[in-house]
Amino acid sequence: MYSDVLLKAWAEDNRIQAPAMKNKPAFYRNLEKALDTRRQTQSLMGLKPRWEDEVADFTTCDFLSLSRSGAVREAFLAELENHKGFDLSAAGSRIQYGNYEYLNQVEQEIADFHGAESVYLTQSGFAANVAILSSVPLPGDAIVYDELVHASSHEGFHLSVAEHKLPFTHNDPDSLRNVLTKLKNSVPEFKTGARSVLVCVESIYSMDGDVCVLQELIHVVKEEFPLGNAQFLVDEAHSIGVIGDRGCGLVSMLGLEKEIAIRIHVASKALGSVGGMILCNKTIRYMLLNHARSVTFSCAPSFPMVASIRAGYQLLITGQSRVAQETIQRNVKHFFGSLTTNPIWEEALTFNNMNAYPMVFPVVPKGESRLRLVFHAHNTLEEIDKLVSNITEWAAEMLDIERGISESALPKAARQLYAMQGSVGM
Ligand SMILES: Cc1ncc(COP(=O)(O)O)c(C=O)c1O
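Above: the input record for the complex with pyridoxal-5'-phosphate. Below: its predicted structure, written as tokens.
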């Protein structure tokens, strides 16, 4: 069983190390000591063994199944076949030799698909956020962000020279208005338009699974900053391929292309490959070239990487991924339909954390650990039914424990886990 292999690997990773390293170099002992603080709460992250396709997948980011089905590989190989003489390396950064024609063509194709003025490709979605946030806000500017934005945005905040970095309550237009009003009132340059604000949100939040109330947030920003010195960055990592016409994402689905200064799309999820796409105008593009050190001082994306991104986009653009996109919607509706019509659901609602894969600190805040469910086109209705029955069985067990009518103080899964820990000497 995959769960046995996974638990064994996890138990191994979480075995305390430093005390047994008295005679080892202090450098490594100190590092292991730091890692032990995670091991003490059994939350050390390690490399997980990969599972076979037979294991029901409610975890991976291959939402449209383009990777698992081989569709993106086929499109990629066709791309290579059509460009047999490609150079493997870009052989320089974009501002030097690395700016090759194929890369420019693919960027333009992606820009046309999303209704953007231009696209800039980066090595990953993480790199895209870091590049934008480290280069666009100027000294004295402000970054105002939804409190649940991704770690890559926070990395960019650290690097940014913006003077103000202020969170607002998740998906809450009133909280955004509060933050903006305070900013305007405390620093007059924000009122006169001499300083700018970048408002950072995501189209779909992957940990809470909710959709950004983008139109409401835009309304607030326009009211509070009528001079246009507050603009949006929308990270569409979780919406590309999944929502909108042929998976064009939330901003295009809502027809808000002109309202949003910067959109980040990623290839590592629904597109089945890797890379980041920054959708922006030419001004922002020049800021990237001149002020994003990860752009200026790093080699341009290689041909194979760009070809793999194009392969995924071809499947979207030509409508070949449409059925997969519809299947995800069917699967999610089936899941909620089955779960919420189960009699246990009403009571089980009191238990918040009912998904498939554990998400713990630092991925989510302390005290908000959860199990996350990710639905894909390759999930079958039978798998979803099984998942629902597992959840409802667990919920029934928990309710019996809560009511004091269970023979055990722990649900079956926890008992199995402790037995496994015991068997590996933890
Ligand atoms: C919202 C968001 N932005 C950016 C990224 C980074 O994307 P990539 O995997 O391409 O680095 C992720 C990845 O999990 C994400 O969830």
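Notes for the reader.
The mean pLDDT is 91.
Residues 381-403 form the longest helix (23 residues).
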